[in-house]
Amino acid sequence: MKEKEVDPAALGRRVAQRRAKLGLSQEALADQVGMKQQGIDAIEQGRVKRPRLLREISRALGTSDDWLLWRRGPEEPSREHSRVPAGEEFEPDPELDAPLTELDRPFPDALPQMAGRIGGGSTGAVISYEVGELRAREEVADWWRIPAAVLRGLARADVTRTVGFVMEGDSMEPTIQRTDIVFIDTGRRKIEADGIWAVDYGLGRTLKRIAVERSDGGLRYVLKSDNKVYADQSFAPDEVVVFGRYVGRFSVF
Is the dihedral of CA 32, 37, 39, 40 positive or negative? Predict the structure, then answer.
């Protein structure tokens, strides 16, 4: 059976309705689900057909994915079926149940590959120790061991500040392919010529080249894709979070 099409405008109205009913600001909801306020605003404006963090958004709003997408089922589902019978409750084992983060390195030079992705509108929280406004830590899927000399020789990368992501989307093709594992040095956030940068400009983390241009209104960051199907986009510097420089990739064929 073919799934019913999602109406982004209706989805946005329902998100805004539930948020207002709970007395949440866009910033508060964004904090709860691990994305930026601009991402929530884009959803409510009807510019996002299916948010990547839909499950987290529906939970934060006390409703279901089906209700947000299609107004299917009750607005506030009953939790009776999910209750644990009295006397059968248990405390989680913190060592087994806590997700691994980049702080849980199994060996000194371990390089974390994050469970989340980058590109294609990925909206998971960006993680690293000191990445400006970004707060939440994300689960680690696996660990890499790359000799420090290799990273330093290629791009002066600091292994202790480098994280990996699976690339999603085709905006940087042919330079970076979909499903490549890309490595980001989060210690380098000052824009340099000829670099590729991990950024978030409101609709999710992604990779872009950045040209810095001066105009009468001040500096502008022009975000460029290597895939010329995608047009350049211009932003004020305070509209773009730069959280690291791309330093290399591992291609999966």
Answer: positive
Per-residue DSSP letter, 185? E
Continuous H helices in 45-108 = 54-60, 65-70, 94-97
Q: Residue 14, Cβ neighbours under 10 Å: how many? A: 22
CA angle 202, 133, 62 (to 5 degrees): 65
Tell me the whole-structure pTM to 2 decimals. Answer: 0.57
SS3 state at 210: strand
Using alpha carbons only, give the angle 235, 238, 239 rounded to the nearest 5 degrees.
45
Contact of 165 with 116, CB cutoff 8 Å: yes
What is the rounded distance in angstroms from the CA atom of residue 181 to the CA atom of residue 158? 17
- Taking the C-alpha atoms of residue 111 and residue 188, their distance in angstroms, rounded to an integer, is 16
Distance, in Å, from the CA atom of 168 to the CA atom of 252, rounded to the nearest integer, reads 12
Rounded Cα distance, 204 and 19, in Å: 20
Q: Which among 222, 223, 218 has a CA at the least distance from the CA of 205?
A: 223
The pLDDT of residue 207: 93
- Strands ordered across the beta sheet of 162-167: 140-145, 110-118, 162-167, 181-185, 241-250, 196-200, 205-215, 218-224, 233-235
pLDDT at 29: 92
Amino acid making up residue 136: A
E strands within 100-204?
A: 110-118, 140-145, 162-167, 181-185, 196-200
Look at residue 126 in the predicted model and tell me its pLDDT: 43
* Interacting residues of 124 by C-beta distance below 8 A, sequence separation 6+: 34, 35, 52, 53, 114, 116, 117, 138, 205
Under-50 pLDDT residues of the chain: 1-2, 80-84, 88-90, 92-97, 123-136
